Amino acid sequence: MSAQVPSNPPALAQRFSLEATRPVAAEIAALADILPRDTPLYLTAVPTQDADELIKAAAAVRRSGMEPVAHIAARRIAGAEALRELLAGLRGEADMRRLLLIGGDIDTPGPFTDALSIIQRAGLHEAGIEEIGIGAYPEGHPRIAAGRLEAALDEKIATATAQGLRVHIVSQFSFSPERILDWLRQLRACGISKPVKIGMAGPTSVPALLRYARRCGVAASLRGLASGVATGLVGHVGPDRIVETLSVANDLGDVALHYFCFGGTLETARYACEAAAGRHGAGRAMARSN
Question: Domain count of the chain?
Answer without folding.
Answer: 1
